[in-house]
TrEMBL record:
<comment type="pathway">
    <text>Quinol/quinone metabolism; menaquinone biosynthesis.</text>
</comment>
<keyword id="KW-0474">Menaquinone biosynthesis</keyword>
<dbReference type="InterPro" id="IPR027024">
    <property type="entry name" value="UCP027386_ABC_sbc_TM0202"/>
</dbReference>
<protein>
    <submittedName>
        <fullName>ABC transporter substrate-binding protein</fullName>
    </submittedName>
</protein>
<dbReference type="InterPro" id="IPR003773">
    <property type="entry name" value="Menaquinone_biosynth"/>
</dbReference>
<dbReference type="GO" id="GO:0009234">
    <property type="term" value="P:menaquinone biosynthetic process"/>
</dbReference>
<keyword id="KW-0456">Lyase</keyword>
<dbReference type="Pfam" id="PF02621">
    <property type="entry name" value="VitK2_biosynth"/>
</dbReference>
<dbReference type="GO" id="GO:0016829">
    <property type="term" value="F:lyase activity"/>
</dbReference>
Amino acid sequence: MEQKKSISSWRKIGCVFIVVCLFALYGCGKDTKESATVRVGSLKGPTSIGLMRMMEQAESNKLTNDYTFTMETSADTLLPLMIKGELDIALVPGNVASILYQKTQGKVSVLDINTLGVLYMVSSDQTVDSLLSLKGKTVYLTGKGTTPDYVLQYLLSQAGIKEEVTLEYKSEPTEVAAILEKEENAIGLLPQPFVTATLAKNDKLSMVIDMNEEWNKIQGDKGSLLVTGVTVVRNEFLQNNEKAVLNFMKDHQESAKYVNENPKDASLLVEKSGIIEKAAIAEAAIPFCNITYIDGIEAKTALEGYLQVLFDQNAESVGGVLPNEEFYYIPNEK
């Protein structure tokens, strides 16, 4: 009897030992950095709209990663935070990502394209329906020597009418809107969501030219796209937390998809965040903000072509030189 009890006891001890070993083996083999706290910075505009669903879910602890979000009005504020390591991921204009790459000597990588072109020609003149129809006319716009200016000049040049279109620069989009209001058939180049807000105040105005369409006509099958915003990550954070970064990319893709498929619900989140004052304007603007999620080789091809155009206009607009291959994070090649 004593021998049977002894055997039974040893069996129990053996089972416990096996369970403990299996638990230890599982624990040792698991990557403890599958999730992480990710500090995300973005700009108050279309590039942040695609994050709205992610922000909502993060607030409710429904995502694998923990996120903190910082929203600024200027890329000049986000860049120092990335350089100092106070942000891990940032959503910035495509050319600013290139500048950041040069400033940090290659210490950031592009994860995805989050927003395509947001520029539209606005006018009450319904005869304006293509670049060629701008011949002999004046276009009002903001930001001489900025990316919208370079994009427009490139497109006009490719259409062969650069010298036959007058560009008149204003300080603020509100100045362009005021001219469109006062001068019949005036033409202005404006970004979303300001376009939608302007149209809501004047039913005589409409979007007469989509600059994305004009870009695509000229670029053809080269794969380049008119890029507004991209997402960059600090390489140090990426190397130490790659699974968490991949989680972010998945969350970002799903968030952008949700916003595009549910503009009414997303508009409430946009209003709450303060990006656009009224949900009704946000709902109308979202379909034209070209919120997207493009990563991998497709993103590389799209962004390379866009940066090349800017570089040809003014090399300093992309940081003086074009980024090399290491600028682009391709998950399946890492």
